[in-house]
Amino acid sequence: MATATLDDKEKKQIKDEFDDVVNMSASQIEKWLDTEESRSVGQKKDGDNESVGHKSGEKIIKILSKKANELSDNDFAHMQKVISYVKRHSAQEPDKVEGSNWEYSLKNWGHDPTK
To answer: Least crowded by CB within 10 Å, which of 25, 42, 80, 98?
Structure first.
């Protein structure tokens, strides 16, 4: 997944931005991913029962459990994907946030828009 080697400055920028957009703790994400609402949203790849966002939430939990010096290039690549998704999706805020697929999808990606 990782395409280029990042220097320490780039890694710090990605980590800082990731920490800003992911506003749920690992335990909050884990509890959320166990809900029916979490499993009810998102795009699924052919033949897969789990959505892309749900899988992303599982990766985010693993990333949050690591120390900064333990993060791999693949972790940083996923962190960049999370940052892009949350920013892009946040710009599409619906009139009614609470209980919307929009809210549920963002939570799968570690961002609670009601916070």
So the answer is: 98
Residue 49 lies in a domain: yes
Transcribe 33-91 into DSSP letters.
Answer: HTSHHHHTSS-B-TT-SSBHHHHHHHHHHHHHTS-GGG--HHHHHHHHHHHHHHHHHHT
Is the entire prediction scored with pTM above 0.70?
yes
Of 24, 49, 19, 47, residue with least CA distance to 108: 24
Tokens coding 91:
């710009």
Domains held by the chain: number: 1
50 to each of 38, 46, 70, 80, 98, how far by Cα in Å?
Answer: 10, 10, 27, 21, 23
pLDDT given for residue 46 in this prediction: 77
pLDDT tens digits along 40-54: 998 888 777 888 889
Q: What is the pLDDT of residue 112?
A: 97
In a domain, 102, yes or no: yes
